[in-house]
Amino acid sequence: GGAGYLGSLLVAELLKLNFKVIVIDKFKFGFYSIFHLITHKNLEIINGDIRDNNYNNVFQYSDIIINLAAIVGYPACDQDKWEATSVNVDAVKKMMDILSKDQLFIQPSTGSSYGKVLDICTEETPINPLTLYGKNKADAEKLILDKNSISLRFATVYGVSPRMRLDLFVNQLVMSAIKEKYYVLYEANASRTFLHAKDAVNSIIFSINNSDKMINNCFNIGDEKQNYSKLEVANIVKKYLEFDIIKNEFATDKDQRNYSVSYEKIRKIGFKTSYNMDQGVQELIKTCKIIEEKSNLRNA
């Protein structure tokens, strides 16, 4: 998944840190997100699907495997349920079968696995996914957590990436505010927690550097300062753009994400986020103003 929304950012950072990086990606959304890195001496790129058996030797001789290959979000998973489970769960099982005790496996996961929560969400909150996407990620986490692995449960991610996505809430909101001058907002008062894409990447690198303290464990990744209602995020965007908010009283979120999240567990180890919502919104405004064709900038 090295050419994806997070992968393209992560590969660049790993190369800066002098890692030797092998990317396996089927380039469903093209290869331009990492094209500027293609000649780097420490980068090898394989055009392929992790579900194939051709890459067992690549997995076996890598010190660290970061699994960003995934069908992400419930709309994309619902489009092809077989493919979603095949990529999100079956491929993880295959990698676990060949993982050795000397390798580190990092599995990005999601807060969507929690389902409906009535209190502040911690890592001890029971997992109760309501969508195939949430279930896939929960099932994958069960496969890894006793095998030299770390699971990172990301908050709702936003921000600019070389493989841009406009189907993420904040990104979509900014794009609509610029291009349409309005945004249709459902479940306006639902509480969510947010994470800049670069901080998601930073958490992966942090996990590599602190694996001895994190091994065989799951962590919520984010910051309590970015626990917002959807309406509060829209009002942050309104500080920079003039647009109308149209409330939709009928649409619902299948994952029923309406809760605040605690990040005390990862903070105690030393992880802190570096980006806030205002920074992310301003970056998105600069980017979205120049985007014309948006049909391919989404997962579903």
How does this model look, in words?
This protein is α/β, with parallel strands linked by helices and 300 residues long. Helix content is 36%, strand content 18%. It contains eleven helices and eleven strands. The chain has helices at 7-16, 56-60, 74-79, 81-98, 132-144, 169-179, 197-209, 211-214, 230-238, 264-269, 277-288, and strands spanning 21-25, 43-47, 64-66, 104-110, 149-154, 156-158, 182-186, 191-196, 217-221, 227-229, 244-248. A four-stranded parallel β-sheet has the order 3-4-5-9, sandwiched between helices. Strands 6-8-10 form a three-stranded mixed β-sheet. A two-stranded parallel sheet has the order 1-2. α5 links the parallel β4 and β5 (149-154). The two termini are 17 Å apart.
Annotation keywords:
300 residues, globular, 11 strands, 18% strand, alpha/beta, 11 helices
Compact overview of the structure:
This protein has 300 residues and is of the alpha/beta class. It has eleven helices and eleven strands.
Strands, count: 11
- Largest β-sheet summary: 4 strands, parallel
Reading the helices and strands in chain order gives HEEHEHHEHEEHEEHHEEHEHH
Percent in strands: 15-25%
Q: Round the mean pLDDT to the nearest integer and report it.
A: 92
Structure class: alpha/beta
C-alpha Rg (nearest Å): 19 Å
The share of residues in helices is: 25-40%
Distance between the termini: 17 Å
Detail the topology: elements first, then pairings.
Elements: H1 7-16, E1 21-25, E2 43-47, H2 56-60, E3 64-66, H3 74-79, H4 81-98, E4 104-110, H5 132-144, E5 149-154, E6 156-158, H6 169-179, E7 182-186, E8 191-196, H7 197-209, H8 211-214, E9 217-221, E10 227-229, H9 230-238, E11 244-248, H10 264-269, H11 277-288
Parallel strand pairs: 1-2, 3-4, 4-5, 5-9, 6-8, 7-11
Antiparallel strand pairs: 8-10
